[in-house]
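Support request, please re-run this one:
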Amino acid sequence: MDAAQILLLLVAAAGAGWVDAVVGGGGLVQLPALLVAGVPPVQALATNKLASVFGTASAAVTYARTTKFDRKLAVPAGACAVVLAALGAASAAAIPSQALIPLVMVVLTGVGLVVALRPGFGARVRPHLRTPARVWAAILVTGVGIAFYDGIVGPGTGMFLIIAFTAILGLDLVSASATAKIINTGTNIGALLFFGYHGHVLWALGLGMAVCNIAGAQLGARTALRRGTRFVRIVLLVVVVALLARLGYDRFLA
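Re-run finished. Output below.
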């Protein structure tokens, strides 16, 4: 790999960190860059997780300093996410990701329509939705279902987490993004443990990208906190469209 390719990957990692910190979906930027640079698919997935886990964790710390999140929710969901993401990564061979892409595209289309047609979605906190039953539902959906999806497929995980916390618990988009970073850190750790154990991670490249991912994530988290829910909503819609285009190309045209 020459210097120009490495520079491209470092820039892509910074951009991915920014997108991930704001709304999730940084894999849209980082993973294709690794593939274009000639990294084999499994090693690209593994190295992407290594870079992402540092950026997502750093964004989580930044959000935690200024945004309240429920540790009784985040801690158990995050712990479940580590285990289920590792199981998802281990199941990837048995459940081909290509088979899941049409379903993911349908869900993404629904997400995009809800956010576009309901301007008030995630604009403010709805505390009356935060019942014990809904908290447990959020833990199961995010720490089990979405975490397992991240291990198998991955794209859009952070965005799905934000939508889940907003829809189930009535969080505003900024608070949901802050909470999502805790769970997403867990999913990245779980998948990384599996990939690392099987020797798929390019450690030197991944750690270099992690530094840039952290820089982008710090800028993204601060931007989201400063600009508020309206800004997060706009970025969310852009990422939904981009992710639909990417998945559609991979599934039907590639």
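The first helix runs from residue 3 to 22. The chain has ten helices and no strands.
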